[in-house]
Known about the structure:
homotetramer, mainly alpha, Arc Repressor Mutant, subunit A, Tetracycline Repressor, domain 2, 9 helices, DNA-binding
Amino acid sequence: MNKRQIKQRDHAIQIREAAEKLFAKRGFYPTTMDDIAREAKLAKGTIYLYFDNKEDLFFSAIENKLDALLARIREAVKEPLSPAQRIKLTIGIHLKFLEENRDCFKIMQSFPEQLKEKLERKLKGRVIERQSQYIKIIDRLIQEAIRKGEVRPLDSRKLAVVLMGIAHSLTVYWISKKEKGSLSEDESLAWEIFWEGARRKV
Amino acid sequence: MNKRQIKQRDHAIQIREAAEKLFAKRGFYPTTMDDIAREAKLAKGTIYLYFDNKEDLFFSAIENKLDALLARIREAVKEPLSPAQRIKLTIGIHLKFLEENRDCFKIMQSFPEQLKEKLERKLKGRVIERQSQYIKIIDRLIQEAIRKGEVRPLDSRKLAVVLMGIAHSLTVYWISKKEKGSLSEDESLAWEIFWEGARRKV
Amino acid sequence: MNKRQIKQRDHAIQIREAAEKLFAKRGFYPTTMDDIAREAKLAKGTIYLYFDNKEDLFFSAIENKLDALLARIREAVKEPLSPAQRIKLTIGIHLKFLEENRDCFKIMQSFPEQLKEKLERKLKGRVIERQSQYIKIIDRLIQEAIRKGEVRPLDSRKLAVVLMGIAHSLTVYWISKKEKGSLSEDESLAWEIFWEGARRKV
Amino acid sequence: MNKRQIKQRDHAIQIREAAEKLFAKRGFYPTTMDDIAREAKLAKGTIYLYFDNKEDLFFSAIENKLDALLARIREAVKEPLSPAQRIKLTIGIHLKFLEENRDCFKIMQSFPEQLKEKLERKLKGRVIERQSQYIKIIDRLIQEAIRKGEVRPLDSRKLAVVLMGIAHSLTVYWISKKEKGSLSEDESLAWEIFWEGARRKV
DNA sequence: AATGAATGAGTCTTCATTCAT
DNA sequence: GATGAATGAAGACTCATTCAT
């Protein structure tokens, strides 16, 4: 990879990072392409060399983050541990990710309803798909735990959803408290409630 | 109250309902005042007789719904039941409300990050306050349950947040499944996981 | 004239006075019919019972003032005095009028260029005509003074214009000084300069 | 200066000239940004690249003209002539300027009362200041003439105001006659009346 | 490849005027 | 006659996107 190519890749990254930051802080509509160009220290026209349009940039930014999260989770799930422990590990990774990417998280939860219907049809799928991949991983972990008799035989998909909801809600609370303390500290609380709530009673 | 007065009140309601519907479906920015006027079957200028501007209308719509929910919850909490039963009742009401107002629910979760900072400062408080009132009610129920030894002595506010998160996540899931089945059916699942997860072990 | 008729006339006057006040203070466009209705303590629709539209009201207000001025001047001109003295008297009346109606004066000088061309054609004439009547009276006084050899044989119309200009400019200056002192005091200055400047040298 | 820069400067000028013309012809409110864009043969959005908003454009247009006039006057005042001659020169320049910029002149006299109070506070000062600079120059010339005993010891500022008023009124008259003849021809009339009216009698 | 000036469709908001009561 | 709610045309301003340099 020569200098020029590096520079090119850099520009795409620069832009995506600027976009991530601003979309996260202000949401989709209030963020202008001018803002992003200024933040990226590039000309406005340059953005269009790397991204089709504003929506494309928006979804690219989110996808990028979600891919990073998915990659980390997939790594964790491979560990040779019991389902319970792997679930706990996953929650930990999830909370740590949200803590590190609090802004991005704010978009992720809100975006699906943000865009005009025409855009939705074209683009929402790109993110939805990743979100459901994520749920699927948790789902499979829970299915395994159910098979092993560690968890009661409930709807595993719904349990996965509930687990995500617990993590999610604690994050929102943490953000609303202006992010005092560490989000990761809530890992055991999330885990405890979910596990006690879901596990098979003796 | 004469005919004219009735008509007036009706118009404010017509507009708010149109706004609720469209803001819920499309979010704040993609919804235009023209859209709302058309939906309400009134002229655009008429909206401005009843609401200061788009933001005011947006928040009025949300407030209205949240007030209705709060009123229902406050009624339920008065019942002469055990904390556990009242918490269960509350979840039921919450899910039923979300089921009946699925659209509005979509805005409620996303709005905080939707608006330009200047607007936020002025107006977000109006909704935030109602949201926290809601959490406070649940919080107090849980505190009571902790005092009575029914729930482990954890951070009651966080438990309230988790309970809401569970209800919330099941709603999102239900919506994502295109709303097949009844959301209320998930009441016992939400309740079971939360209560088993939080209650004092013998 | 019965009670009802008195009341009606009162309403037209109320409205015109409110209009005079507000048009004078803010100019034509920034003054709204709502403002005028509020100031007149009548309903907006009532204005349209007495005036065709906003322009009509505007010109009616100005005409009314100009008619009052013209009446006073015509009275003065009848006095059995020398042209010089009658001109001096006229300047005095003019300055006193402007002092009493400083706001109205502000509109009078600016209005001709204020309105869309379509309106201009229809309505400007109404005021222009009165303005030129006013100049005509001064013109005739000066012609008389020229005939009597008191004033040099210059273009009498231009001299009339210059005289008005002197009075006008001193008024603007007086207003710009936030109306300290009495405008009438400038009567002798205006008179002196004009008369010394115009009269026949011995 | 490359082609692009030339083009840019041109555009700002094109816009200002279009604005000057239209504001002058129709006044502030009846002139729309669309009109100006059409007149300037540029897109509406382009105006906002060079001017903050309509008010800014309005005042920029006036300021520009007044600056040109001030520059010409300042040059004339430097001439090694008697005060009387320099005053005469100044009137000549003033009338010539008004003749060349008859439209702009129309705005200048009317603008102060044209704008909503909020705008006035922010922006009127920009023009008022230039107007008073102009009066100050004439004022100083007259003071000098008084010191030299050429003019009677009257209030020099008021004399300056009167002189401007004479020039001004002749311009209005010339415009009202649909601009027949040359305004500059009135130079000697204006001068004669003012000077005879103001000078020290032997 | 990079730039940023230019574009103009799209939006909120105002306000003169009408008309049912 | 009096009212004031309703109307909708009109206008300032924004901003994603294009394209000549």
